[in-house]
Design brief:
The chain has 2 helices and 2 strands, in the order αβαβ. By secondary structure, the chain is mostly helical. Strands 1-2 form a two-stranded parallel sheet. The longest helix has 29 residues. The protein starts with 16 loop residues before the first helix and ends with a strand.
Length: about 90
Amino acid sequence: MLTSQTVYAFQCDLASDDGVAGLGEKIIKDIGVPDILHNNAFWAPNGSMEDIDIAGIRKALDVSVLGYLRIVRAFVNHMIARKSGWIVNTAS
């Protein structure tokens, strides 16, 4: 039997520790601890190996790797305390 579910979507700068932590606090305060957390973010610099942009590579790692960890950190302890929740990470 299917039950009705509410889905929320939020945006923030995944490269910002404070931005992600603030979003996590807002979500928990306004709607509670999520049952399912789905991370889906990717950023890649343009160019080729001949003109590699180190700052762009840093940003890609900050968003595409560390961003996921920031989001998980914002919610995982609350999920553990509640003894329920799912975290789904997708990557390209």
